[in-house]
Amino acid sequence: MATVRWDGLGSWCEVLTVDDDDLPAAAEIARDEVATLERACSRAAQTSELARLATGRPQQVSRALAGAVAAALRTADFSGGLVAPGDGWQSVRLDAVRGLLTVPDGVELDVCPSARACLADRIADLCADEFGIGCLVNLGGDIAVRGAVPPGGWQVEIDDGPPGPQGRPVIPMAWPGGLASCSSGLGSWRTVTVAARSCERASEASRTAAVLGDSAPRWLTQRELPARLTHAGGVVVQTNGWPLQRWIA
Q1: How far apart are CA 97 and CA 150, in angstroms?
Q2: Are 78 and 208 in contact, with CB atoms under 8 Å apart?
Q3: What does the alpha-carbon distance between residue 104 and residue 95 come to, in Å, rounded to a whole number?
Q4: Is 232 left (phi over 0), alpha (psi -120 to 50) or beta?
Q5: I want to staple 114 with a disulfide (CB 3.0 to 4.6 A). Which of 24, 63, 72, 121 is the partner?
Q6: 187 near 231, Cβ under 8 Å?
Q7: Distance of CA 71 to CAs 113, 119, 124, Å?
Q8: Nearest C-alpha neighbor of 152 from the set 173, 128, 180, 179
């Protein structure tokens, strides 16, 4: 396996490939896509396209920003509004075909969390579909896997707080899909980690479950989403389908 890591999107970005020779191409794709998203909607950059967007009227926006807003609106819809890109999100209008976005006056959007997970899927898809690269893309903990995997799968450590007596749990990611965690000091759950067929869906579900509180395990089970939830008190709850774990010190 080969790996490269750099700072981006207000966190870290990492790409791993099964074949060492594939890493340069995968890294170039990932760096370009991350830079494009940062120019579109980074909250840390006052010069980003989203920061400079005028409100109250339709405006032509880039493909990257339109995609980021679309991902954030999908998350809000999936969560029933529990996880939304901002107050008043229901009034945001996006014409993805024409690339027109209307943000009402007084509405401030934060689309990066949803866009980051969506981007992890996009990068992994580009690597696998266009170049046949087996890869794991990790954007600040939002993970997408596509193509060939190492023997036994990608070994992913779950960080859900201080390690217990057994150490930290590690799961094998051998499916083409995604994994995402939401950590919060509020509510019932310290950390919620969800496995899904895409990183975007895993991120949507983990963030929604973190808000739902005690009803989260049932909500995840009803949607057939394997998950590991760590209670604020340290108790761990798993839903059906969560991968077999091993432990590391």
Answers
A1: 39
A2: yes
A3: 15
A4: alpha
A5: 72
A6: no
A7: 9, 10, 17
A8: 173
Q: Does residue 1 register a pLDDT over 90?
A: no
Kindly give, in sequence order, each residue whose CB lies less than 8 Å from that of residue 100, ignoring residues fewer than 6 positions away: 58, 59, 60, 61, 93, 94
Which pair of tokens denotes residue 155? Answer: 């070994």
pTM score, whole prediction: 0.95
Give the pLDDT confidence of 170-213 residue by residue, as tens digits: 999 999 999 999 987 667 899 999 999 999 999 999 999 999 99
- Quick check: helix, strand or coil at residue 93? strand
SS (H, E, C) 36-90: HHHHHHCCCCCCCCCCCCCCCCCEECCHHHHHHHHHHHHHHHHCCCCCCCCCCHH
DSSP assigned state of 197? S
Look up residue 121 and give its two tokens: 């899927």
Query: What single-letter amino acid sits at 3?
Result: T
